[in-house]
Amino acid sequence: MKVFSTNVSVIFRFSSEEVSAQNQVKASVQRKIRQSIAEEYPGLEPVLEDLLPKKSPLIVAKCPNHLNLVLVNNVPLFFNIRDGPYMPTLRLLHQWLTSPGGVLDDEVEAETPVAIMAEGKQHALAIGFTKMSAKDIRTINKGIGVDNMHYLNDGLWKMERLE
Q1: Is 69 within 8 Å of 157 (Cβ atoms)?
Q2: Cβ(55)–Cβ(135) below 8 Å
Q3: How far is CA 84 from CA 40, 110, 163, in A?
Q4: Which of 10, 24, 61, 137 could cross-link 69 (Cys pair, CB 3.0–4.6 Å)?
Q5: Whole-model pTM?
């Protein structure tokens, strides 16, 4: 098993008390968020209506370090930093998106969101962005391969609901 160092971000060392604002978004903003998520994760299309129902209010919570949380029924489902791509929370990933036997797909390019799995485990332990392509990770075999954005037991993991 190859081991890579990671640059663990400190953005998720926060608690729900540090949320500066929660706003129900307009229908046009909700459509834009849904479209962005659908484009980033085309495999979610069959369950997107279950995850982000059109009739349920969509809340965006503003957090420290330019972090935005997308909530449905007070449950954080996706997050982004500044205007970056939306990434699923680990709880969402565990509920809907993981499968045993994860592999490093050679087609993965740098700056791609990925789930980070422990060998032999079914559920992801972190979500991050690749810092280099999968091919470079395999051939260079040193340096930062993935920049962790969200991991088990961080502030977002501990925030099951935002009241």
Answers
A1: no
A2: no
A3: 11, 14, 25
A4: 61
A5: 0.75
For residue 89, the model assigns a pLDDT of 92
In single-letter form, the type of residue at position 113 comes to P
Q: What residues form DSSP beta bridges with 78? A: 70, 88
Query: Nearest Cα to 105, choosing from 129, 133, 126?
Result: 133
Alpha-carbon dihedral 66, 153, 50, 108, rounded to 10 degrees = 70
DSSP character string of 19-54: --EEEEPPHHHHHHHHHHHHHH-GGGGGGHHHHS-T
pLDDT tens-digit series, residues 2-20? 333 333 444 556 677 888 8
Residues whose CB falls within 8 Å of the CB of residue 17, separated by 6 or more in sequence, listed in order: none
Cα–Cα–Cα angle for 154, 158, 162, nearest 5°? Answer: 125
Q: What SS3 class is residue 62?
A: strand
pLDDT, residue 44, reads: 86
Q: What is the percent of the chain where pLDDT is above 90? A: 37
